[in-house]
């Protein structure tokens, strides 16, 4: 019996992009369904009744929610398909999960303040927090090609999807990530050389256009 894999997603979502990369890395065929978050589909509400958010991976009728859990699920279910996404050693896995959680708590929150808030003290604090978080991640990367050393993996997937939003962050916040974190930008460009990444990430200019529309709608300046 053929497996049914459906991804409920939004093109611009850095969280949805993680699922897309993981599925591409494993070579899993799936049906992509774009959601309108202003008019959520009955399927989304049924599959994620708690948070009512994307992404949702539906595997043979069963939903998996939250992007990092989806990536781990994909790695575990299709463990026979190379490459592995999570490190094999328990400590390395715990470390990758720690930093992925750091990304969602620090980078996402700082980016939200840069993009969605009106100019002022909160946005300036967001810019500082963003740079501080990225510098910590840059230190964690060190001189390695990827966060997993020579192997692209879990933490790379967790962070690289934010690269689609970097242009919007830079324009809205009037800053340059390359000036502050050149090694991290080099890492992101290295990741983009992988077809599984480049074809899964949203175009930076389209993300910026999306941000401008929402800023206008919600009154950010």
Describe the secondary structure blueprint for this structure.
Elements: E1 5-9, H1 14-26, E2 31-34, H2 42-47, E3 56-59, E4 62-65, H3 67-77, H4 90-116, H5 121-141, H6 154-160, H7 163-173, H8 177-180, H9 182-192, H10 195-198, H11 204-218
Parallel strand pairs: 1-2
Antiparallel strand pairs: 1-3, 3-4
Helix pairs in contact: 1-3, 4-5, 4-6, 7-11
Textual characterization of the structure:
The protein has 221 residues and is an alpha+beta fold. It folds into 2 domains: 5-77, Glutaredoxin (3-Layer(aba) Sandwich); 90-218, Glutathione S-transferase Yfyf (Class Pi), Chain A, domain 2, CATH 1.20.1050. It is built from 11 helices and 4 strands. The protein has a 4-stranded mixed beta sheet with strand order 2-1-3-4, with helices on one face. The mean pLDDT is 95.
Summary?
With about 220 residues, the protein is of the alpha+beta class. The protein has helices spanning about 15-25, 40-45, 65-75, 90-115, 120-140, 155-160, 165-175, 175-180, 180-190, 195-200, 205-220, and strands at about 5-10, 30-35, 55-60, 60-65. A hairpin with a 2-residue loop joins strand 3 and strand 4 (about 60-65).
